[in-house]
C-alpha cells in the first residue's frame, strides 16, 4: 500500500512539474508576442511621424510657391492697362504718395494744390509720359534691334551660299581631273595596241565601245599569232 501511495505521489509531482513547465513556456511565448506587437506599434508610429513630416514639407513648399507668385504679381506694375516689366520699372520714377485726408490732415487749414480738372490733366499727362518712358525702356532692354538681326541673317545666308559654291567648284575640278585621267589612259592603251582610227573622247558610252573594240582586236591578234605558230 505504501508503495502504491508513493507511486501516486510521484505521478502527481511529475504532472505538476509538467504543468509548471507548460505555463512557463506559454508565458514566454506571450511575452515574445507582446514584444513583437510593441515593436510593430513603434514602427507604425515612426511611419506616421514620417508621413506627417512629409505633409508639413509639402505644405511649406506650397506656401513658398504662393509667396513667389504673390511677389511676381506685386512686381508687375500696371499703369493705364499697360504692363510694365520689373527691369524697366526701375528706370521710371514712381509718383509721390498721396496726402493724408480726414482726421490726419490739420483741421481748419485750406487744402492746397490744383483743382479737379487740373488734376485730371496732370494724371493724363503723367500716364502718357509713363507710357513713352516704358516704351523707351523696353527698347533699351531688348538684346538686339531688327536691322542688326537682319544684317546678321544676311551674313549667314551669304556664308552658306559661298560654302555651297566652293563645294560645287571642288566637285567640278574633281570631275575634270577624272576625265583627263581617262583620256590619258585611253591614249596610252591606243599607243600600246598600235591601233589607229580611234578618236579620243570623254563620253562614257563611246569609251566603253572603244574598249570593247580594242578587246576584240587583241583577241583576233592572239588567234592569228597562235595559228602562225601552229603552221610553223
Automatic annotation (TrEMBL):
Q: Where is the signal peptide?
A: none
One Pfam family recorded for the sequence: DGCR6
Q: Which organism is it from?
A: Nothoprocta perdicaria
Q: Which family does it belong to?
A: Belongs to the gonadal family.
What's the protein here called? Protein DGCR6
InterPro entries per UniProt: Gonadal
* Compositional bias annotation for Basic residues: 1-32, 64-76
Q: Where is this region: Disordered?
A: 1-79, 93-117
What residue spans carry the Low complexity bias annotation? 103-117
Amino acid at each position: 500500500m505504501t508503495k502504491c501511495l508513493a507511486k501516486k505521489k510521484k505521478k502527481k509531482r511529475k504532472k505538476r512539474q509538467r504543468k509548471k513547465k507548460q505555463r512557463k513556456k506559454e508565458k514566454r511565448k506571450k511575452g515574445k508576442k507582446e514584444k513583437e506587437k510593441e515593436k510593430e506599434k513603434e514602427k507604425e508610429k515612426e511611419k506616421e511621424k514620417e508621413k506627417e513630416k512629409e505633409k508639413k514639407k509639402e505644405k511649406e513648399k506650397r506656401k513658398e510657391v504662393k509667396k513667389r507668385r504673390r511677389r511676381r504679381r506685386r512686381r508687375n506694375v500696371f499703369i493705364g492697362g499697360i504692363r510694365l516689366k520689373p527691369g524697366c520699372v526701375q528706370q521710371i520714377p514712381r509718383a509721390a504718395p498721396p496726402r493724408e485726408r480726414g482726421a490726419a490732415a490739420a483741421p481748419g487749414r485750406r487744402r492746397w494744390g490744383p483743382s479737379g480738372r487740373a488734376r485730371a490733366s496732370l494724371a493724363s499727362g503723367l500716364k502718357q509720359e509713363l507710357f513713352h518712358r516704358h516704351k523707351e525702356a523696353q527698347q533699351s532692354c531688348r538684346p538686339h534691334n531688327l536691322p542688326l538681326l537682319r544684317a546678321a541673317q544676311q551674313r549667314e545666308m551669304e556664308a552658306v551660299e559661298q560654302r555651297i559654291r566652293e563645294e560645287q567648284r571642288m566637285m567640278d575640278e574633281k570631275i575634270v581631273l577624272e576625265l583627263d585621267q581617262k583620256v590619258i589612259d585611253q591614249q596610252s592603251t591606243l599607243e600600246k595596241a598600235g591601233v589607229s582610227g580611234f578618236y579620243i573622247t570623254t563620253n562614257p558610252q563611246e569609251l566603253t565601245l572603244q574598249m570593247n573594240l580594242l578587246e576584240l582586236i587583241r583577241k583576233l591578234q592572239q588567234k592569228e599569232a597562235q595559228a602562225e605558230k601552229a603552221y610553223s
